[in-house]
Design a protein that fits this description.
Layout: E1 2-9, E2 14-21, E3 25-29, E4 36-37, E5 43-50, E6 54-61, E7 72-79, E8 93-97, E9 111-121, E10 124-133, E11 138-141, E12 147-149, E13 153-161, E14 179-181, E15 183-185, E16 187-193
Antiparallel strand pairs: 1-2, 3-16, 4-11, 5-10, 5-13, 6-9, 6-16, 7-8, 7-10, 11-15, 12-13, 13-14
Length: about 200
């Protein structure tokens, strides 16, 4: 966020207007036509290749709970990829949690989940795990992973799990979680490119 200032002067007065401007903000959107879903406390995994450092402040995700119902996310990262780390809780680091104000927009509609504190990812490869709160994730079952990209990052969609391995650090861990490959998360990531 930058502050732009406009100053206008004449012989009688000087007026200044300041306006905050969010430059470089964008959205990276995946699918929003879910054909499957997980359980409350379940997790969806995907890989994220960051080409320009970004700060992530929101996710828009797909829930099938009634419109207006409380929902949320706990966000975890792991270096390089989620693949091979799905059952390794020690590999994951919690980087964010929702602000507690998100509500469902209804099935196959983007529900905006604002993070309590945005987090920054430097250029590099990451595995991401999103633990659902309030309802299970909606996702799309697909025979192969889909990729989506913008100028700052590329997302490779991946898998879902009924209980979160990385979520063993949170209260709703489900022992003996069932892991499902080829689940395509229905997400939109709101991010801002970092400069200087």
């Amino acid at each position: 966020v930058y502050t732009c200032t406009l100053t206008v002067s004449n012989a009688w007065s000087t007026d200044t207007i300041a306006q905050e401007v969010n430059l470089g903000a964008g959205k990276l959107t995946t699918l929003f036509a879910g054909n499957n879903g997980g359980s409350v406390g379940g997790i969806v995994y995907f890989d994220l290749l960051v080409t320009n450092p970004v700060t992530i402040s929101q996710f828009e995700t797909n829930y099938d709970v009634a419109v207006g119902s409380p929902v949320g996310l706990v966000v975890y990262t792991v270096p390089t990829t989620y693949v091979g780390n799905e059952q390794n809780a020690a590999a994951w680091t919690q980087v964010a949690i929702d602000n507690g104000l998100a509500v469902s927009a209804g099935m196959d509609n983007p529900s905006v989940v604002t993070l309590q504190t945005p987090f920054t990812l430097q250029s590099g490869s990451y595995g991401i795990g999103l633990v659902s709160v309030g309802d299970g994730h909606r996702y799309t079952t697909s025979p192969s992973p889909n990729t989506f990209s913008d100028a700052n990052m590329m997302i490779t969609l991946g898998a879902a799990q009924t209980g979160a391995a990385c979520g063993s650090k949170v209260a709703n861990m489900t022992p003996g979680a069932f892991f499902l490959r080829r689940r395509q998360q229905n997400k939109q990531i709101r991010q801002q490119q970092m400069t200087g």
